[in-house]
Amino acid sequence: MSLELTINNDIKEAMKAKDKIRLEALRGIKKEILEAKSAKGAASEISDTDVVKIIQKMVKQRKDAAALFSGQDRADLADKELEEIKAIEGYLPAQMSREELVGAVKVIIEKVGATSMKEMGKVMGMASKELAGKADGKDISVVVKELLG
Which CATH number do you get for residue 46? Predict the structure, then answer.
């Protein structure tokens, strides 16, 4: 079953369970998927990889919003964003641990043949493609800097 169908089924389950926060978060995902499908030049079907990218973007947006609300002493709004993150993150693939990420980046550095920070762009390009969905871009960047620096 595709990720999109899973989300649609989970929307129905959230409605039955009267779980407002989960329902709102899932409807947000569905809205983003529909917008991606109806975008100019987009295919009528959307791949699970694209759905994962959409969900990652939504999680990042909610984390940023929660941080902003916390900074403004709006704990009620920050808590709502954090609860939505919990509901959404269940649809993302498991994230790599720090040790796994370091190992993967070392392999990529060897493939590219990078030896200095001047070649960080080459490493980041390959790492971003290979580790998409498995690790956050900021985490990848930090590890690449540590290993090349």
Answer: 1.10.1510.10
